[in-house]
Every structure is written in structure tokens, then in C-alpha cells.
Amino acid sequence: MYTNRPMLIDSNNIDLLMQNTVTTNSSFVETKFGIRLIYIDGILSRGSPLRPEVGTYEWVKANVLSAVNDQDVRGIILVFNTPGGDANGVFETARLIRKSGEKKPIWGVVRDMATSAGYALACACSRLYATETASVGGVGVLAVHIDQTARDHAMGYKYSLIHAGTEKTLFNPHLPLDQRGYNLLKAEVDRLYEMFCNHVVAMRSLPKDFVVASQGRIFYGDQVVPEWCDQISTLENAVAEMLGVINTGKQDMINDQQSDVNNNDVVKEEDQRQEEEEVTVMNEMVDKNTTMDSVLVIAEMCEIAGLPHLTSHFLRQFLNNKISIDDVRSLLLQEKQKSQQLLSNIIPPNDDKQQNVLLNVVKKMYGGD
Q: Contact at 8 Å (CB) between 167 and 180?
């Protein structure tokens, strides 16, 4: 199952896959003080999204999403003890971890090991800890082809493969691996290695030359900071620090809400000042015996153009005989064209509070609908 395909796994553990001696995965989930702890243990594989098996990428994704959507969960910590595993599914799982971290803090703790695919997941955490005896890194890709022709010969077996397609038997274990098969498998290994390096560069903000120079090496203890991990610490300390950050963030949110209240008071004062100014404009209109038709035409043109904030400006200009109704129409068209160019970046809110207050005052004073 795991032969002739690239793997993101510590080479010391590859024999477990080849010999099918992988023990039952011991990954599990628990919650402490509102922090969801997701223990990722053992060799990783994709798994089925319909029935995610414990410790698979699908299991990791399902538990991360469950924690994000659980209102009782305040933060998430992924706890790693894995040498890596399958390449299929690892990067999409890592991207989901990073994206989900935008909604709730997702940190990682390498309690024992996070190498190869394990590190691909771990480096997606916004903050990454490692214990003083943990092993981290192993940014590399490995593929194994088993040539058992010598064994077949010793046992007196000779296989004849009937096939169509010249490359159908390239990786068959009963045939020697030829150069064509080697080149194809090596090309896929190199492609995934490039993806792995770019992934670590993006997640850890490291120079690519630095990542490539590691050449798949595994790091220990103080070697892991500050590039591969952020801090040498324990799971217990990580939980305590996350609780401190969350509580501080809650206080900051309270402060922000108080600031919003103060800002709303300022906005209300500005709205009141603007409305008083518009009423003043209306009084000027009455003093000048301005006809209802002219007032309503200008106010309604501004409303239709979606530029109600220009109403008082144009009415002042009109009252002072500086512009005509035709001038207002022309100027509104020009302003409308400018605003349409910004439409992709600035979308006016569809809110009843955004009505043209002056238009309402005009209609009220002159008995309009």
C-alpha cells in the first residue's frame, strides 16, 4: 500500500509501514478550562471524510472544525507525537488549521515528535512549543520501491506480466526498477519536496534557502528555536499561557466595546449637527420663497443618484444663484461616475439610517409624500 508513493515520514519509521506493523493509533481529544486539546499520535494517513478514523487527517480536520464551532471552546492546542506519514491530505489539513486559527487561537505543542508530515501540521499553528526532549523538522520526502526479484528467484518463482501500456508495470515488485520508473518516481518526490519547503516558508516566515539547507534533518532541544518552534516549554505552560492571552483578549474586547460606545456618541453628535445644518438650509429656502418644485427636484436628484450627502451643498449653490438645476444634474452624473469606479472597494450599506434626511425635511415642510 505504501510502496512506490512519496511519503512525508521519518525514515526510521518507514519499515513499520512496509511490514504493516503499525500499532493502533492512540490519538484522542479532551477539554481543560475551555481549551480543546487534540492529541495527534502515530503515523498519519488521509482517512475517509465519511467515517474519519482516529489519527487520520480527516479526523484532525473534523476535530479542529468541531472545536472552532463549539461555543464552550475558547482555544485549541494540537499536541504532537507523530513521525509523519502519508503525503496525501497533509497540506490541505495544514491549511485548514491555519485558516481556522483566524476564528480561534490554535497553538501546537510537540510533546515528543513532530517530524515530516507531523511538522507540516505543527508549523501551521500560530504558536508552536516543543518540550526539551522533543524532535522537530524532517522537511523532506521519501519513496520506497521494493524489488523482490532476488527473493522470487530464491523461492523458485518467475512472474510473467501480461499488460497493455508500456508503463503499466514500471513499479511492479517482481521486476527490477528501470531508469524510466526511477525518474518518474523521483520527479514526484521532488515536486512534493518543493511544496513542503514552500509550505514551511509560508507558515513559519523563514527564508527558503534556510529551509532547503536543513536537507530533511531532524532537530532537538534548543536547536528547534526560534526558527522551527517559538519556545521550549511544556503542555501545561502552553495551556496556562493560552488562558492568559484569551483573558487579556477578552479585556481588550471590553475596552474596544467601550471605545465603540464613545465613538457612537461622537457619531450621534455629528449626525445631530448635520441635521441642524440641513434645517438651517431649509429656513434659508423659506426666506427666499424658493418654490417647492425646485427644492424637491434637487433633493430627489441627489437621492436617486445615491449621493444624498451632496444635497445641502447643491441647495446652497442654487440659492445663491451659482448653479441651475441642469448644472446640478450634470455635476451629479460626474460624481456618480467617480463613485462607480470605486464600487468594487466601497459598497454603501443598505441601511434605513442612510436616508436623505434633507429630502425628508423638504417633503415634510412642503407637504410632499
A: yes
Counted residue by residue, the chain has a size of 369
- Residue spans of the domains in the chain: they are 7-147+176-243, 259-366
Quick one: CA dihedral 61, 62, 65, 71, positive or negative? negative
Taking residue 328's Cβ as centre, other Cβ atoms within 10 Å add up to 23
pLDDT reading at 114 higher than 50 = yes
Superfamily of domain 7-147+176-243: 2-enoyl-CoA Hydratase; Chain A, domain 1 (3.90.226.10)
Grid cell locating 351: 441601511
Query: Which of 186-213 are b and which e, b meaning 16 or more Cβ less than 10 Å from the residue's Cβ?
Result: eeebeebbebbbebbbebbebeeeebee
The answer to whether the peptide bond before residue 83 is cis (omega within 30 degrees of 0) is no
> What is the per-residue pLDDT across 27-79, written as a single tens digit (0 to 9) for each?
888 988 899 999 999 999 988 777 778 889 999 999 999 999 999 999 999 99
Cell of 150: 532476488
Per-residue pLDDT reduced to its tens digit, 95-104? 999 999 999 9
Cα separations in angstroms, 90 against 72, 84, 159, 270: 28, 9, 36, 53
When pLDDT is cut at 50, 70 and 90, the band that residue 301 belongs to is confident
**E strand residue ranges, the chain:** 7-9, 28-32, 35-41, 75-82, 84-86, 106-115, 127-130, 135-137, 218-220, 231-232
Which stretch of DSSP H or E encloses residue 332?
helix 325-341
C-alpha cell at 85: 506519514
